[in-house]
Amino acid sequence: MQTDKTSPAFAVAPAALALSNPSAADFASADLDILKAQARDIRDTQWGHVVTYSRKVFAPLTNMCRDTCSYCTFVKHPDDPAANIMSPEQVLAIAKKGEAQGCKELLFSLGEKPELRYDKAKAALAMIGYQRMTDYLADMCALVLKETSLLPHVNAGTLADDEIEILRPVAASMGMMLETVSRRLTQKGGPHYACPDKTPVQRLRTLERAGQRKVPFTTGLLIGIGETFAERVEALHAINECHSRHGHIQEVIIQNFQRKPDIVMANAPEPSLDDMMRTIAVARIILAPEISIQAPPNLSARHLAYLDAGINDWGGISPVTIDFINPQHEWPEIANLANSCRLAGYELQERLTIYPRYLRDGEAFVSPQLQARINNMAGSNGLARNQHLLAGSQERTIEQNFGSGGCHS
Ligand SMILES: O=c1nc2n(C[C@H](O)[C@H](O)[C@H](O)CO)c3cc(O)ccc3cc-2c(=O)[nH]1
Ligand SMILES: C[C@H]1O[C@@H](n2cnc3c(N)ncnc32)[C@H](O)[C@@H]1O
Ligand code: MET
Ligand code: SF4
User: The Radical SAM core domain covers which part of the protein (predicted)?
Assistant: First the structure.
């Protein structure tokens, strides 16, 4: 952005952003209003004043997990009477409810590989005929595809090559929050201590594998878990570099840690609104413009302010199921959200779980089994029918932003 040297803002906050490659320290000290203005410019050019969401239902396939993140209230030990694996009937019941309410996505979110840590979890899986949770997940995705019109999106944490292979034909998109690149937080006393799936190297490997296999992928940062601002900037660069190799990152979520009474981090402070806004703006400035920036509307009463910091997406919102990960926070009514967005100067539009550019850019990112169904939902060639599902049709393609070499810098 060209900064107007005569503007009062420039007088208080000198040129951090006039630098071609701002450092984390530059981003940390820059005037927040200048950062937000620059982020808005990028957002407006790429996405306009359209803000999207995916109408979805949430299926917590299992709450057992081999990890024990200190911020997580979702996870249940297999000895806990509340520990569970959803039955196919339960999955279908949720899916059918969603279908009846016009949902187009079913988000499977689950604990990571509990069978590798707990005999009880292994036995519970064996009872329903499976050795690995991921195999059951793939079959449940297939069931949803067979019996309903919903597109499965899978958020199962780290994935090995063969897990991605079996999920790819039955999931329209997948995701995994990188969370952080801080190795410090895996040490004793840290939120990721003894969590094998939260070591940054494993998270980064999953991002890379998804790219190699051309899976449209959602990732993001969980902020306020003890990471430094510089570590957030480092994480954003790591995501962007991975995307520059493969073009598969469809969206990056900036999620604010929420305190709950029943977690180890019950007394940890939550990030402030300004902290969220600075991180969102910096994400918008660092990441390639075609990567959507998402922040949840239910984790802050002041979420509309995120629009001023450059977001263009609210993520999945459900008229049917609660947010099982942050169950104390209700979804906004979609009609109310649409109204408040309109008053703020933005149009709320529905989208699919897979972003439009992956439909336009050919078959590489859509598995052949899903091609016809997705095209049918989105309209032929991604444009004709259901125009509203292709929000951001003014988006530039990956090639336009990256050039044929595929590198953004
Ligand atoms: O309701 C939620 N949806 C979450 N989603 C769903 C997400 O908002 C939508 O499913 C995607 O935007 C796809 O449409 C995630 C998806 C991922 O792939 C990775 C992480 C998340 C995190 C959450 C979450 O905390 N709560
Ligand atoms: C599915 C995603 O939910 C996020 N998640 C887990 N626990 C919390 C919490 N207390 N507050 C906010 N987000 C959380 C993590 O980022 C995880 O990857
Ligand atoms: C409640 S978290 C759900 C997804 C997965 N266990 C992760 O942490 O990435
Ligand atoms: S956040 Fe995900 S990986 Fe961590 S304990 Fe909860 S379910 Fe497991």
Answer: 51-298
- Give the model confidence (pLDDT) of 198-221 as tens digits: 999 999 999 999 999 999 999 999
| 15 domain-assigned | no
Q: Are 50 and 312 in contact (CB under 8 A)?
A: yes
What H or E segment, with its residue span, contains residue 372?
helix 368-378
Q: Whose CA is nearest to atom 10 of ligand 1?
A: 316
State which ligand 1 atom lies nearest to the alpha carbon of 56.
10
Give the C-alpha distances (Å, rounded to integers) separating 220 from 133, 189, 322, 361. Answer: 23, 23, 21, 23
Residue 290's pLDDT band, with cuts at 50, 70 and 90, is very high
Residue 71: give its domain's CATH number. Answer: 3.20.20.70
pLDDT of residue 275: 98
Residue 19 counted as domain residue: no
CA dist 10 and 14 (Å) reads: 5
pLDDT digits (tens, 9 = 90+) for 118-139: 999 999 999 999 999 999 999 9
From ligand 3's centre to the CA of 110, what distance in Å? Answer: 6
Q: Note down the domain range covering 268.
A: 26-397
Helix (H) or strand (E) holding 107: strand 105-109
Task: Indicate whether 367 belongs to any domain.
Answer: yes
Instruction: Report the candidate in 257, 246, 229 with the shortest Cα–Cα distance to residue 329.
Output: 257
Cα 215 to ligand 2 centroid, rounded to whole Å: 22
Whether ipTM tops 0.95, in short, is yes
Q: Where are the beta strands (DSSP E) in 136-265?
A: 151-155, 173-175, 217-223, 249-256
255 domain-assigned: yes
Structure letter (DSSP) for residue 267: T
241 C-alpha to ligand 4 centroid (Å): 26
Give the number of other CB atoms < 10 A from CB of residue 12. Answer: 10
Is residue 351 classed as helix, strand or coil in its secondary structure? strand
Which listed ligand is nearest to 104 at the C-alpha? 1
Token output for 124: 């519970």
Number of separate domains in the chain: 1
The string of pLDDT tens digits covering residues 303-356 is: 999 999 999 999 999 999 999 999 999 999 999 999 999 999 999 999 999 999
